[in-house]
Every structure is written in structure tokens, then in C-alpha cells.
Amino acid sequence: MKERCLVITIDCDDVLVPTAYKVLDHYKDEFGHEVNPAHFYESTAEDWGVHDLRHVNRRIEQYFRSKKFHHEGKIPYPEATIAIPALARHHELHLVTGRGKFMERSTAELIDEYFPNCFSSLVHTNYFKKRFRQTKGQVCKELSADIHIDDHTEHCQNVLDEGIENAILFGEYPWNRTVKLRQGLARCVDWVSTVEEVSQIAAR
Ligand SMILES: [Mg+2]
User: Fold this and answer.
1) Longest CA pairwise span in the chain (Å)
2) What predicted TM-score, i.e. pTM, was given to this entire model?
3) Cα 4 to ligand 1 centroid, rounded to whole Å
4) Ligand 1 center–CA 97 separation, angstroms
5) Which residues contact 34 (CB under 8 A, 6 or more apart)?
6) By C-alpha distance, which of 8, 2, 4 is closest to 165?
7) Range list of H helices, 66-103
8) What domains appear along the chain, each with residue ranges and CATH number?
9) Ligand 1 centroid – CA 10 distance (Å)
10) Of 15, 74, 87, 144, which one's alpha carbon is 20 to 30 angstroms from that of 116?
């Protein structure tokens, strides 16, 4: 069956590389507070043992800027290193991450090392700086994406709200267990099923 060439936007953290658990492990080592991974995205200050969530953002940013993250935060999921080049042979891929602009170099190094020549662009939407961020929906629309792949339910819903036809909720994580199913939203637990889902969409 002939497959269409699609524009696919792909998240970075917990889709290409495991990140959330590294942040949580670091947070526990550094600040002595164990955070429930289910509350990684939707949390109160209390979940992180602070009075103000802004402290949490600062602490996580420090980790992302650290040598420790530089060494341990750039090892992708092995399946992603197979799936991404395979998708890139047939489709146009763009990385669309919520990471802050300060991580552009670090992300580019990761992509150059493990996913060379796979992505047409790398976009950092600054999700954690509310005043300065773009939504993934806006970015994916500008890129005319056909499919967005993300482990965060909010981003999947947001791209669909902006008119992107397909979103794939990636992985089985404590923070994405519950999701309101809707037209255009598929759930894929790993890269093998994600590639299959893309193939089905491309064959429509
Ligand atoms: Mg993510």
C-alpha cells in the first residue's frame, strides 16, 4: 500500500529520551523530597515539598544546566534510535519540545549524536515559562503537522484543539494514565506500536 509522506512533530522528553524519572531521582537526592511521578506535570507546590512552584522550576532548570544532566540526560531509548531513522526515511520530522530556549544546544547535541539528519527543525516552546511560551498546538499548526507524538496529555489535546488531525499519546507513564479519548487521538505504549500507527495513518 502506498503511504503518504506526512509531517510529524515529535516531543523529546520521555518520548526520545527518558527524563522525568531522572529529574525526580535528582530532586530526591538533592532536596530529600520524593515526588509522586503521577504529579510530575499536574502538581501543587506541596507535592514538591515547597511553598511556591516557581522554586521547583528553578531547581529543575539548575539540574538541566548541570554537568550531571549533561552526562546522564542524553541517552535515548534504544527503540527510538531505530524508529526515528525509519520514520525519517518516509516522512518529514520536526522536534517540538517544551524545553526552554536555554536547552537548545543540549538538545541539538543529543539529536546530532543519536538522530543525525532525521529532523528538519528543532523547536523549543518554553513550556515552563508561562509568559514566554508558545503552545505546541500553535507550533504544530505553523509546521502543518499531520501527526504530533507526545507523552503529555495536555499537549496532545492542545494540538487536536488547534486542528491537527492526529495525536499519538506516547508511553505508559503514571502522569498520562488517564486521558479523555477523542477523535484523532491514539494511544501507543511504545515505539513499535507508534510506527505501526503512523503507517496506518499514512495509508489512509
Ligand atoms: Mg515529554
Assistant:
1) 56
2) 0.96
3) 26
4) 7
5) 24, 28
6) 8
7) 67-72, 78-90
8) 7-18+76-203 (3.40.50.1000), 20-72 (no CATH)
9) 9
10) 144
